[in-house]
């Protein structure tokens, strides 16, 4: 209604053209036709509006609310209210029709006028120009040929390829001096130069040959392109998850600039039945309190449209703010998601078990202290490292000359002694193995320090280290720990696999315990045989039947022989402490969820299959994922499943539920037994370890170095997403990246 609508100059100036275009193309003049229009004016000269006027004056509008006439073009293009009454009549107040039928003095004709410069005619011309889009100034300015668009896309494609390659290689983009006369303008610009030098077409559209106002090489453009790539990677991950249930893996660490960062990884089963763990985000948190972490996680899920009610697992390390039963992160998430079951990282448990076991037995505890002491002395300076390398070369040459070492590509590498760390997985095994491999060169270096040390303290420490290294007890424990850790290291590597499932992990833990128990029962004789290796290192072999004497107290224990001491107090005590810690930290046999889930495992020809346990698993732990009708139907499916799938030739010799889930998809059985397939996916979603989050922090150390310590959080996150999920990022087409980049904001070049 012209009498009620806002005036055009009341709209924001940047919206007026769009509003005018909608009025012209979609709405048109408001020509309200009534059967009887109301009379107006004085009683002596009553008059009324006539619908026939709409045909004579197409620009005319009628307002029923004010019973007045308006001019449609003048409303659209009159910018301000004029002080003259006539100018206001057809725009603001509305015109009454007392002098319409007055011949040449008709008010409508007077409003139109014949002059091209009249306000009405100018408004008509503006309407026509607005309808013809190719006459618009911005269209004329931006109009470019097809070849120019091709050149612009080639120019941007080169920048995209350079940025993606640098992100894949974790390289920096910029340099401290990027001026045109700089010898090194940074990786990004230098890479563009290299690409241009190998392709004449690229050379014609990039760098100095590109438009001055659209080179697409500035730092903000680089970050925008990287953001587009990382956003596409997250979109792919989000599409992979779909509406499926997923698990949350979280860990936090400090970056190079001492900022607390939280790594967020999602574990889920894709449509093909594969277990995937995808790095999703890196979030800067102001503190590591559980409430702060929860807020950041839920905000990220909300932004990416991930339903928190679909969380079916949580995996963290043993930090109190994460695993606390009352105020920890897992407890806060359980309050909102009651079926997001928490699993303490199994790899952390194994590490804690090894560290605790090493401290329980005094001899083993002293061994690790002495091991660190020896490594610190040998690796204290560059000179000693060079001497260690020279000693290795001499030993390798000697062994090759007497045909005790094979030669070939990739063998007989020169190495260094590695230190053990309480928080570094497998580091104890690596440290023990490195010393065994470099035992003779280490003795040679210590001997040189004893003879040629510059100070008496260096010579004294080296002498003590040499005596420790060549003692029977030290070497005996060295070989013993190597045997034990060879068993546990296999479990370490298995637990860190992304596709590992909780049931197979617990099966591997049980197998590790069995192997260590076998070592306890049958390994002592092999340990005695290893004494033959001691003679290679010029170590004095003790008489096993002799009475044992405590070195520290110099007192003899009655009826305790040397063999009894090393067998009972060292060998058995070390293995028992390891078994005890494993039993304490891997007590999942007491957890009902694991017991019931074991009924799904296909190993040993489905020996553990139990319909009642599987139904009980659904009833107790996943009641919201199955309706009451589906719970009844599940029993029927399990009966058919037992006779059909278990006896199917393609479903034999499967060892894990992960393989079972994949085979169901490959054979099409997942569609028939869709409820069992759903339950398998829920169990597979349970976390095993936080190795993927640890790998994210390793990548963060590669990307955010001391020279790149001022990286912004968003830039760091985008670099990490592209670097870690390279397999996804490299499949994203360049055209898709260019189109998304063009849609981000108005670009100067037509793409």
Labels describing this entry:
two-stranded antiparallel sheet, protein dimerization activity, 8% strand, RNaseH-like_sf, single chain, 751 residues, HATC_C_dom, alpha+beta, elongated, five-stranded mixed beta sheet
Give your account of this protein's structure.
With 751 residues, the chain is of the alpha+beta class. Among the domains are: 15-132, no CATH class; 351-586, no CATH class; 592-685, no CATH class. The strands form 4 sheets. It has a 5-stranded mixed beta sheet, sandwiched between helices. The chain has a two-stranded antiparallel ribbon with strand order 1-2. A hairpin with a 6-residue loop joins strand 1 (39-40) and strand 2 (47-48). Helix 16 crosses helix 20. The longest helix is centred in the middle third of the chain and has 24 residues, at 472-495. It is elongated and about 140 Å long. The protein starts with 15 loop residues before the first helix and ends in a 7-residue tail after the last helix.
Topology:
Elements: H1 16-27, E1 39-40, E2 47-48, H2 53-56, E3 60-63, E4 68-71, H3 72-77, H4 85-93, H5 107-112, H6 119-131, H7 137-142, H8 146-168, H9 187-197, H10 200-203, H11 219-241, E5 246-254, E6 260-269, E7 275-284, H12 290-303, E8 311-316, H13 320-323, H14 329-336, E9 342-344, H15 346-360, H16 362-378, H17 382-401, H18 427-437, H19 439-452, H20 456-469, H21 472-495, H22 502-522, H23 524-529, H24 531-534, E10 547-549, E11 556-561, H25 562-585, H26 592-597, H27 603-606, H28 611-621, H29 628-644, H30 657-667, H31 669-672, H32 674-685, H33 691-703, H34 713-724, H35 726-729, H36 734-744
Parallel strand pairs: 5-8, 8-9
Antiparallel strand pairs: 1-2, 3-4, 5-6, 6-7, 10-11
Helix pairs in contact: 8-9, 8-11, 8-36, 11-34, 11-36, 12-14, 15-25, 16-20, 17-19, 18-21, 19-20, 21-22, 21-25, 22-25, 28-29, 30-32, 33-34
């Amino acid at each position: 209604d012209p009498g009620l609508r806002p005036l055009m100059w009341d709209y924001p100036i940047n919206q007026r053209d769009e509003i005018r275009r909608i009025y012209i193309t979609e709405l048109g003049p408001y020509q309200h036709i009534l059967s009887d229009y109301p009379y107006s004016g004085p009683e002596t000269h009553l008059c009324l509006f006539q619908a026939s006027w709409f045909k004579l004056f197409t620009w005319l509008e009628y307002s029923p609310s004010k019973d007045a006439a308006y001019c449609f073009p003048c409303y659209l293009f009159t910018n301000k209210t004029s002080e003259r009454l006539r100018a206001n009549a057809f725009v603001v107040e509305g015109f009454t029709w007392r002098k319409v039928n007055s011949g040449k003095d008709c008010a409508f004709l007077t409003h139109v006028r014949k002059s091209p410069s009249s306000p009405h005619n100018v408004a008509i011309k503006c309407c026509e120009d607005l309808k013809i889009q190719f006459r618009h100034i911005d269209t004329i300015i931006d109009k470019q040929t097809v070849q120019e668009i091709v050149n612009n896309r080639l120019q941007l494609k080169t920048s995209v390829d350079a940025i993606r390659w640098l992100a894949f290689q974790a390289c920096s983009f910029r340099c401290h001096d990027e001026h045109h006369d700089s010898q090194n303008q940074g990786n990004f610009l230098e890479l563009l130069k290299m690409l241009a030098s190998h392709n004449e077409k690229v050379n014609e559209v990039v760098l100095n040959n590109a438009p001055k106002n659209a080179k697409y090489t500035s730092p903000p453009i680089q970050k925008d392109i990287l953001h587009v790539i990382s956003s596409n990677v997250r979109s792919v991950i989000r599409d992979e998850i779909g509406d499926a249930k997923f698990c949350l893996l979280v860990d936090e660490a400090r970056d190079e600039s001492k900022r607390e960062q939280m790594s967020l990884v999602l574990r889920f089963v894709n449509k093909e039945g594969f277990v995937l763990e995808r790095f999703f985000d890196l979030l800067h948190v102001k503190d590591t309190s559980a409430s702060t972490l929860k807020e950041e996680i839920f905000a990220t899920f909300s932004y990416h449209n991930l339903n928190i009610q679909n969380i079916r697992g949580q995996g963290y390390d043993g930090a109190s703010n994460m695993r606390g039963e009352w105020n920890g992160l897992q407890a806060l998430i359980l309050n909102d998601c009651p079926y997001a079951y928490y699993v303490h990282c199994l790899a952390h448990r194994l590490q804690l078990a090894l560290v605790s076991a090493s401290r329980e037995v005094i001899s083993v505890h002293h061994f690790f202290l002495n091991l660190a002491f020896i490594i610190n002395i040998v690796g204290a300076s560059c000179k000693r490292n060079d001497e260690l390398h020279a000693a290795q070369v001499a030993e390798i040459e000697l062994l090759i000359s007497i045909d005790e070492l094979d030669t070939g590509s990739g063998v007989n590498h020169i190495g260094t002694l590695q230190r053990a760390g309480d928080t570094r997985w497998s580091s104890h095994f690596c440290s023990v193995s490195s010393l065994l491999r470099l035992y003779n060169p280490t003795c040679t270096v210590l001997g040189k320090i004893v003879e040629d040390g510059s100070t008496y303290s260096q010579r004294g420490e080296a002498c003590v280290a040499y005596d420790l290294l060549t003692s029977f007890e030290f070497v005996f424990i060295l070989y013993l720990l190597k045997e034990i850790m060879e068993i546990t290291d296999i479990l370490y590597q298995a637990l860190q696999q992304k596709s590992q499932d909780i049931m197979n992990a617990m099966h591997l833990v049980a197998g590790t315990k069995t192997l260590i128990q076998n070592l306890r029962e049958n390994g002592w004789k092999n340990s005695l045989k290893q004494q033959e290796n001691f003679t290679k290192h010029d170590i004095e072999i003790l008489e096993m039947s002799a009475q044992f004497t405590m070195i520290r107290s110099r007192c003899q224990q009655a009826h305790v022989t040397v063999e009894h001491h090393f067998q009972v107090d060292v060998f058995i005590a070390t293995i028992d402490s390891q078994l005890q810690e494993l039993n304490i930290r891997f007590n999942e046999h007491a957890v009902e969820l694991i017991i019931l889930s074991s009924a799904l495992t296909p190993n040993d020809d489905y020996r553990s299959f139990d319909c009642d346990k599987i139904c009980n698993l659904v009833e107790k732990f996943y009641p919201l994922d199955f309706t009451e009708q589906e719970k009844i139907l599940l029993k029927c499916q399990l009966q058919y499943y037992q006779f059909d799938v278990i006896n199917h030739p393609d479903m034999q010799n499967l060892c894990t539920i992960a393989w079972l889930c994949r085979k169901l998809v490959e054979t099409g059985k997942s569609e028939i037994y869709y409820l069992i397939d759903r339950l398998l996916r829920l169990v597979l979603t349970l976390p095993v370890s936080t190795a993927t989050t640890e790998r994210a922090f390793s990548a963060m150390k590669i990307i955010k170095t001391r020279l790149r310590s001022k990286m912004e959080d968003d830039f760091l996150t985008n670099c990490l997403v592209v670097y870690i999920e390279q397999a996804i990022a490299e499949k994203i087409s360049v055209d898709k990246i260019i189109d998304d980049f063009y849609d981000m904001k108005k670009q100067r070049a037509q793409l």
